[in-house]
Amino acid sequence: MPELPEVETIKNDLLTKVIGSQIIEVSYTDGGEKLKYKFKQNLANLITGERIAGIERRAKYLYFHLSGGKILVVHLKMTGQILIRKSSTTSDQNTRIIFVLDDGREIRFTDRNDFGEIFLVEDVARIEDQLGPDPFEASYQQFENNLRSSKSGTIKEALLDQKIIAGVGNIYADEALYTAGINPFKSPKSLSENEIQRLLNSTKEVLNDGLTHRGTTIDTFRDTDGKPGSHQFHLLVYGKAGKPCKKCATKIVYTEIKGRRTHFCPTCQPKEQLSLF
Ligand SMILES: [Zn+2]
């Protein structure tokens, strides 16, 4: 699933490519017709003629601010992509909806698994209510308070909870816990202040690294040119089961936490910290 660095990469692409463009036609493909019923909206009637006035990312959501004041919200979920193509470019697989722009280009929304979301809202209050702070804006105190009041049994689940910190998914959660040296099974309530500070720092660090490499492409993530990211070549622990830890050479362990794929080093991320006394 695209996480913060992947969605931010797409946002940055969109900012340089489509601000000010007018949407002159919206068409659903045969495979995309179901989006109309899923969200009870026909975007062709609702946004044709609008200009794209601004683009924002919030957690894993993209907000397209339209000239009329409404906001087109996109969540890529598992396999969604946003591609910008000249209209003359051959069609892309799994295209669900096409926004034709006034300069001969198109924004194509593709989605192999069809979990993606695309809908128009007057304001984003109901989305924002479900989201905690962005990792780059979260203060230590906010992060600590959210972790201490978390109902999650493990810190891995807590990091995936968008109300605690917004934008982290499975890959970067594993990378952040490894970088901070924290066992994924630990209770969020049991973490020391030092561990919480390390975790906030490492979360920002791994997300920044992912952004530098224009995202992680393990399956379907692509930028708006259709190009994969390269952070998959820099991952430290995610997908490395059985391989030696880069810090201590212990074999990386694969497990599942509440059904989520989880990777960690049992030596660098011990369940119990050894007491110095
Ligand atoms: Zn290790």
CATH class of the largest domain: Alpha Beta
Bound small molecules, by name, code or SMILES, are: zinc ion
The geometry reads as elongated
Stretches where pLDDT falls below 50 for ≥5 residues?
A: none
User: How would you name the oligomeric state of the polypeptide chains in this document?
Assistant: single chain
On the 0-100 scale, what is the average pLDDT? Answer: 96
Q: How large a portion of the residues is in β-strands, by DSSP E?
A: 15-25%
Overall SS class: alpha+beta
Radius of gyration: 20 Å
Q: What is the percent of helical residues?
A: 25-40%
Q: Sketch the major β-sheet.
A: 4 strands, antiparallel
Q: From the coordinates shown, what is the CATH architecture of the largest domain? A: Alpha-Beta Barrel
> What is the spatial order of strands in the main beta sheet?
1-6-7-5
How many separate domains? 2
Protein name: DNA-formamidopyrimidine glycosylase
GO molecular function: 8-oxo-7,8-dihydroguanine DNA N-glycosylase activity; class I DNA-(apurinic or apyrimidinic site) endonuclease activity; damaged DNA binding; zinc ion binding
Subunit structure: Monomer.
Cofactor: Zn(2+)
Task: Give an overview of the whole structure.
This protein is elongated. The longest helix has 20 residues, at 193-212. The chain is built from eight helices and ten strands. The strands form three sheets. The chain has a four-stranded antiparallel β-sheet with strand order 1-6-7-5. A hairpin with a 3-residue loop joins strand 6 and strand 7. It folds into two domains: 4-128, MutM-like, N-terminal (N-terminal domain of MutM-like DNA repair proteins, Alpha-Beta Barrel); 140-264, Helicase, Ruva Protein, domain 3. It has helices at residues 4-17, 33-39, 43-47, 125-128, 140-148, 155-160, 170-180, 193-212; strands at residues 23-28, 52-58, 61-66, 71-75, 80-86, 95-101, 105-111, 117-121, 253-257, 260-264. It starts with a helix and ends in a 13-residue tail after the last strand. 27% of the residues lie in helices and 22% in strands. The model has no long low-confidence stretch (mean pLDDT 96). Helix 1 (4-17) crosses helix 8 and helix 7 (170-180) packs across helix 8. It is an alpha+beta fold and 277 residues long. Bound molecules: zinc ion. The site of zinc ion has 7 residues, from loops. Belongs to the FPG family. Keywords: DNA damage, DNA repair, DNA-binding, Glycosidase, Hydrolase, Lyase, Metal-binding, Multifunctional enzyme, Zinc, Zinc-finger. It holds the Pfam family H2TH.
